[in-house]
């Protein structure tokens, strides 16, 4: 049995992707709270000893440190035979959406939400730019999940677990009322919420929280 340690901070949607996947696969992990707000991931010591990429999350498997949620999710899907692709075409689709999520939806939503909720005076022009990008991406996602229950078909895959990472936090933080503005995205999220064993982010990622400004 693999023992896991997850280096995270509670507000991290990327950490939630891994915590959720492990939980849905019936696995437990030791949570390793990290002082992201205090800047620890920017220190040379942390980068040398935990992650040279300077990013959270980091998943330790028997002490081996893994980073980047997409390949980690794929590895866990293979290991537990859950939330993976059933054939080559599905694998292509899963990868397509994992890449899109990392670069577009999660990438921009994470930045928009962090600045909006967890910094004291985010530049309005930058926020406006980021919000327009997120609006576009949510519209794209809505168009897809309106056509089928999950992003690549009838079953949830790690692509869904990645895409939902930042959309699973409270509306107060993101400022996005998905039920009102993107009902198809909201309905798809509810299908993820209904998965057996699913828990919300702050239940899986405990500990001291960042100061919230909104
Ligand atoms: N593509 C990475 C993204 C990780 C990431 O951006 N994590 C954020 C926190 S949730 C971070 O550490 N950001 C630090 C930075 O951008 O300098 C993944 O999937 O693991």
Describe what this molecule looks like in 3D:
The protein has 214 residues and is an alpha+beta fold. The protein has 2 domains: 4-82 and 199-204, Glutaredoxin (3-Layer(aba) Sandwich), CATH 3.40.30; 88-193, Glutathione S-transferase Yfyf (Class Pi), Chain A, domain 2, CATH 1.20.1050. The chain is 52% helix and 8% strand. The protein has 10 helices and 4 strands; from the N terminus they run E-H-E-H-E-E-H-H-H-H-H-H-H-H. The protein has helices at 13-24, 44-49, 69-80, 88-118, 124-145, 158-163, 171-174, 178-181, 183-193, 201-204; strands at 4-8, 30-33, 58-61, 64-67. A 4-stranded mixed beta sheet has the order 2-1-3-4, covered by helices on one side. A hairpin with a 2-residue loop joins strand 3 (58-61) and strand 4. The longest helix is centred in the middle third of the chain and has 31 residues, at 88-118. It is globular and about 45 Å long. 36% of the residues are buried. Bound molecules: glutathione. Residues 12, 14, 41, 54-56, 68-70, 102, 110 line the site of glutathione.
